[in-house]
Q: What sequence folds into this?
């Protein structure tokens, strides 16, 4: 009588992981964070239906990731309302994205990844509440 031996091999198969879709926001935020730049300056221009003083370009000095001076004056939240560091701009983009605003447009620096312009229209039915921000003359310190 012949004996037969059978071996059964169990192979565990898992579905191949699909590549994670990375948004421009995520890719550029990661690029910015990977630079580890904490000391920098830039010119921030705000575009809105606001006072002339508010929309004038402002030189922002950031040390240790925190705003230190605006136009060579010590930073104060009360006096400098609406002035953002680069990390703050990323937070504004994320907040606007989570609020499903009517329009959210951003462009990013191709080398460092920080937002170079940001436009937010929170509600297209409301006039004059749109806000725009642009960054120029970025300098790592």
A:
């Amino acid at each position: 009588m012949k004996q037969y031996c059978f071996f059964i091999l169990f192979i565990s198969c898992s579905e191949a992981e699909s590549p994670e879709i990375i948004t421009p926001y995520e890719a550029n935020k990661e690029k910015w964070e990977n630079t580890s730049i904490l000391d920098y300056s830039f010119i921030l221009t705000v575009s809105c239906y606001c006072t002339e003083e508010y929309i004038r370009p402002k030189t922002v000095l950031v040390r240790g990731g925190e705003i230190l001076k605006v136009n060579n004056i010590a930073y104060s939240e009360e006096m400098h309302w609406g002035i953002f560091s680069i990390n703050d701009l990323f937070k504004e983009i994320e907040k606007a994205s989570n609020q499903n605003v009517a329009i959210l447009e951003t462009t990013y620096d191709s080398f460092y990844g920080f937002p170079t312009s940001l436009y937010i229209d929170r509600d297209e039915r409301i006039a004059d509440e749109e806000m725009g921000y642009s960054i120029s003359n970025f300098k790592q310190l």
Remarks:
- Residues 5-10 have pLDDT under 50 and may be disordered.
